Amino acid sequence: RQRNAKVEDLWSLTNFFGFATETFVLAANILDRFLALMKVKPKHLSCIGVCCFQLAARVVEEECNIPSAHEIIRISQCKCTVSDLKRMEKIISEKLHFEFKATTALTFLHLYHTIVLCHTSERKEVLNLDKLEAQLKACNCRLVFSKAKPSVLALCLLTLEVQTLKSVELFEILLRVQKHSKISDSDLLYWRELVSKCLADYSSPECCKPDHKKLVWIVSRRTAQNLQNSYYSVPELPTIPE
Questions:
Q1: C-alpha separations of 56 from 16, 74, 153 in Å
Q2: DSSP letter string over 145-203?
Q3: Domain map of the chain by residue range?
Q4: At what angle do helices 105-119 and 150-165 cross, to 10 degrees?
Q5: What pLDDT, on a 0 to 100 scale, did the predictor assign at position 239?
Q6: Which distant-in-sequence residues (6+ apart) come within 8 Å of 39 by Cβ?
Q7: Residue among 9, 98, 17 nearest 62 (CA)
Q8: Residue 210 has pLDDT above 70, yes or no
């Protein structure tokens, strides 16, 4: 449960900084790989999550767009210091042998999506990639899907979407993709049922979704007062003659 909440925080951070879906998916992947190797205390999970986010951003994003460690800590409201983050980065890096890049479900989703569009006579916009990516993000927020093969998870999302479109041609293309990828019917059916349930739960109004609004700069009352006083203390500029 705490892991799922932390991944949702990573989703919020990704949206706040305007980063790519790939950054979020890779951050969740790094987090899951680390948690599979190490037992961590709940109090350290926040620092670990922020560190995974920073590592993923370095892999995916342009260096000039990556915020400083101090800024990420402030925005995420993580109760750790820059020194804590550096120490955690060293631990994660060593445990993962500095292998941060990974073939994720997003990799296969883009690949399969391209294959389908290349072989279909349907309109190109019929399979909305943004929608599929959003559904993948929802799945990434559930620990159970960290155990699914990336290729299977990607194909599940596509087959469920094609079912809603009721396109025989698209379904036949995905059958060929499944055969070529050597994905068994039993695997596909098992995970597709879980994905379907996850997406149904996530679309319900009772489901708690990542709260992007809570990610704001934290300004103390004293700082706010000083900012207000400094605003009023600025002298009026003299009138500029014509």
A1: 15, 18, 21
A2: GGGS-HHHHHHHHHHHHHHHHT-HHHHHHHHHHHHHTT--HHHHHHHHHHHHHHHHHHH
A3: 1-96, 105-210
A4: 40
A5: 52
A6: none
A7: 17
A8: no
Q: Model confidence over 111-145: pLDDT tens digits?
A: 999 999 888 887 767 889 999 999 999 999 999 99
User: Token pair of 106, please?
Assistant: 């997003």
Percent of the chain with pLDDT over 70: 83
Does pLDDT of 26 surpass 50? yes
Among candidate residues 70, 71, 60, 58, the one with its CA nearest the CA of residue 16: 71
Q: In this structure, what token pair is assigned to residue 173?
A: 């293309």
Please determine, looking at this structure, whether the domain spanning 1-96 carries the CATH number 3.30.950.10.
no
pTM of the model: 0.81
Q: Nearest CA to 89 among 16, 39, 30? A: 30
Contact 195, 202 (CB under 8 A): no
